[in-house]
From TrEMBL:
Gene3D superfamilies documented for this protein: Acyl-CoA dehydrogenase/oxidase, N-terminal domain, Butyryl-CoA Dehydrogenase, subunit A, domain 2, Butyryl-CoA Dehydrogenase, subunit A, domain 3
UniProt similarity note: Belongs to the acyl-CoA dehydrogenase family.
Species whose genome carries this gene: Bradyrhizobium betae
Swiss-Prot/TrEMBL cofactor(s): FAD
Protein name: Acyl-CoA dehydrogenase
Keyword terms of this UniProt record: FAD, Flavoprotein, Oxidoreductase
Domain Acyl-CoA oxidase/dehydrogenase middle, chain residue ranges per copy: 146-240
PANTHER family the record matches: ACYL-COA DEHYDROGENASE, ACYL-COENZYME A OXIDASE
GO molecular function, one term: flavin adenine dinucleotide binding
Pfam family, one: Acyl-CoA_dh_1
């Protein structure tokens, strides 16, 4: 017969596997330098953001005290070359976005709006002089930007229906209108405003220096149920005068705006994948620790079924986004590619986080367990940067040759 000591060794439970949302080990496809950046971001988010983010989410507030330390990560302008930008591949940008959203989608959105939408507008549509002037301080996060396209009455119809207008008077442009749901707007330093030129009816972009421009005002949007850490605003422009030097010289039609949206739209796919990653890992950890009937609920068949389905959604999205980043790095990314990924990943994200909330039962609606935050935030990502239905129509046009928008 085995001794008592031997028997106890046999009976000792194995340590539970550490929750890991990278089931297919996709991080191994990064270079050593890229891995180091991703690791640095994960360490920062876990050490600095995770301990405080639930309180800020509950308070509908942004953790401004984190900005000095976040600047030190040197991520501004990730994916852009020159002008003090961080550079790197779109694959790296995607993995970083996924890591940010793995802890908090709002923090990822703040960064994406600034580094992707605002900086991207200047990088893709600005003149050389504008790039030299604005991109270096934005890359250092000394100046933070926002992107004003959506309006109170115009969302999906921005390509042809902007009500914000621009009228040229000599070397000055006069802007009038409103923008809504603009992330970072209540506190940032500059806004990229897209307006319809009354002279030719084309969409043009403008750099508005918020704090020094008369007629420019922002009202914070209150009572959100998703992305509560991001400060969204409604911008009002009343005879705002902008010099010709601040008009984006390469932003002369909605096609130029769309170049920015193409890049940032698929970044929402990375963010929604990161949400799934965070929700899956938090749910698995909870299931390993939560005891019912004397056993961890992770040992129950129905819980394992939900966890496996969460992981399948997450892994499918990771693989799709990785291929999309490769297409972008190869210069092959099209609007239809970005649209399919945005629609698919955000839809799967809603499904994944709902399963996580289900596993947690009543605790799934309490912010303290993190999953509730992911559950709510997934709703915003599903809608912004173009609705699910609009993305499918972009894909539909590409695969059938027929536009069905109207």
């Amino acid at each position: 017969m085995p001794t008592a000591t031997a028997a106890s060794k046999v009976a000792s439970p194995k340590p539970a596997p550490v929750p890991d949302g990278d089931f297919y080990q996709l991080v191994d496809l990064l270079t050593p330098d890229e891995k180091a950046v991703v690791k640095k971001v994960r360490t920062y988010m876990e050490a600095k953001v995770q301990p405080i983010i639930n309180k800020y989410w509950s308070d509908d507030a942004f953790p401004f005290e984190l900005l000095p330390s976040f600047k030190e990560l040197g991520l501004g302008g990730l994916g852009f070359e020159g002008y003090g930008c961080a550079g790197g591949s779109q694959k790296l940008f995607g993995f970083v976005a996924m890591e940010l959203a793995r802890t908090d989608a709002s923090f990822c959105t703040f960064f994406g709006v600034h580094s992707g939408l605002a900086m991207g507008s200047i990088y893709l549509d600005g003149s050389e002089e504008q790039k030299q002037k604005w991109l270096p301080p934005m890359a250092r996060l000394e100046k933070v930007g926002c992107f004003g396209l959506t309006e109170p009455l115009v969302g999906s119809g921005t390509s042809g229906g902007l009500t914000t207008t621009a009228k040229r008077e000599g070397d000055t442009w006069v802007l009038n209108g409103q923008k809504r749901w603009i992330g970072n707007a209540p506190w940032c330093d500059l806004s990229i405003i897209w307006a319809r030129d009354l002279a030719d009816n084309q969409v043009k972009g403008f750099i508005v220096e918020n704090k020094s421009t008369p007629g420019f005002s922002v009202e914070k949007i209150e009572h959100k149920i998703a992305l509560k850490v991001v400060q969204n605003g409604q911008i009002t422009l009343k005879d705002v005068r902008v010099p010709e030097a601040n008009r984006l010289q390469g932003g002369n039609s909605f096609r130029d705006t769309a170049r920015v949206l193409r890049m940032t739209r698929y970044m929402v796919g990375w963010a929604s994948t990161g949400i799934q990653m965070g929700a899956y890992e938090a749910t698995l950890k909870y299931a390993q620790e939560r005891l019912q009937f004397g056993k961890p609920i992770a040992s129950f068949q129905m819980i394992q079924d939900l966890l496996a389905k969460m992981l399948a959604n997450l892994t499918a999205c990771q693989c799709m986004m990785l291929r999309l980043a490769q297409l972008d790095d190869e210069g092959k990314l099209g609007d239809h590619h970005a649209a399919l990924a945005k629609a698919f990943c955000t839809a799967k994200s809603r499904e994944t986080v709902s399963w996580g909330r289900e596993v947690l039962g009543g605790n799934g609606i309490v912010a303290d367990y993190n999953v509730a935050r992911f559950f709510a935030d997934a709703e915003a990502l599903y809608s912004y940067e173009g609705t699910y239905q609009m993305q499918n129509l972009i894909v539909g046009k590409a695969i059938t040759g027929h536009g069905a928008f109207l």
